[in-house]
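Researcher: I'd like a candidate sequence for this fold, 305 residues long. If you have to choose between options at a position, lean toward the conservative one.
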């Protein structure tokens, strides 16, 4: 119990420090477009400190640190030229085709085409490796808004991020899939068949469970302790398709206790979220664990062509 409380405290301190440093950066340095590096003409996307009422769980940091999808991290030109996939508008898209034969997904969406020779790769690189969680959350909210308008994801009842091994999370300071999951969940409507966060309790964003705990101003609950990493895996970057499959084979597990808890709460359709889909090996490994119990849809920021 003491170890868990200590771990939660250090994560809270780390997230708070990251938030403070980002605020200082925005105060003293010129903000640049995340894609082309041009100076932004006006103040966009600045971090807004979370106002925490008395008794609110302070483990849920960065709750309102990024505005709605107003182009706040990109210049007008780069914002207009984002290579959007539009997968959220139709089924039978390339993302579903990539996973076909290895697992079954109900729907799949990605925000933009991730091309290695394109500067738009910086949207993921700055977020994932540069620690710009505000950028990642902003992009995820954009995807969530598109998915909500598309109408194909109205049946989703909970959002599940691909888990990160504790060693990688310790080095990076966060799980990028959790950030993306939270941004999407905030923008997807809690419509027909959705499950309230109170029915999905079991922890907070810092310690696992639902990312929003018992406070969801809008959107869907994010369940972070359903899937887990069984073992540490090397990065999938620069690996060939067959190597990627072998690298993640058996790397994930699912908690039967959490399955039962979600089923009792009425969850039947979950959205699995990651930052980028390349060959689909990681996504497919997780979907295979989820599909015996849930209908599974998938969403990522990038789709590698």
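Model: Candidate sequence:
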């Amino acid at each position: 119990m003491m170890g868990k409380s200590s771990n939660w405290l250090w994560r809270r301190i780390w997230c708070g420090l990251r938030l403070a440093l980002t605020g200082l950066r925005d105060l003293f340095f010129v903000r640049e477009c995340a894609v082309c590096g041009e100076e932004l003409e006006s103040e966009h996307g600045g971090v807004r400190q979370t106002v925490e009422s008395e008794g609110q769980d302070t483990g849920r940091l960065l709750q309102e640190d990024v505005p709605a999808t107003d182009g706040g991290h990109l210049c007008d030109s780069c914002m207009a030229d984002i290579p959007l996939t539009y997968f959220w508008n139709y089924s039978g898209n390339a993302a579903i085709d990539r996973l076909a034969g290895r697992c079954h997904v109900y729907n799949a969406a990605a925000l933009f085409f991730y091309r290695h020779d394109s500067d738009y790769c910086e949207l993921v690189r700055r977020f994932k490796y540069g620690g710009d969680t505000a950028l990642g959350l902003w992009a995820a909210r954009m995807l969530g808004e598109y998915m909500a308008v598309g109408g194909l994801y109205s049946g989703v009842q909970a959002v599940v991020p691909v888990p990160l091994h504790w060693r990688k999370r310790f080095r990076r300071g966060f799980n990028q899939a959790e950030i993306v999951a939270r941004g999407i969940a905030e923008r997807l409507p809690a419509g027909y068949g959705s499950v309230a966060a109170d029915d999905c309790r079991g922890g907070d964003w810092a310690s696992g469970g639902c990312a929003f705990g018992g406070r969801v101003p809008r959107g869907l609950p994010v369940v972070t302790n359903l899937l887990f990493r069984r073992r540490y895996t090397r990065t999938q970057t620069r690996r060939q398709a067959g190597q990627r499959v072998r690298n993640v084979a058996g790397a994930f597990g699912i908690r039967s206790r959490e399955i039962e808890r979600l089923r009792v709460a009425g969850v039947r359709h979950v959205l699995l979220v990651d930052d980028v889909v390349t060959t689909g090996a990681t996504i497919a490994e997780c979907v295979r664990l989820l599909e015996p119990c849930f209908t599974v849809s998938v969403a990522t920021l990038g789709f590698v062509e």
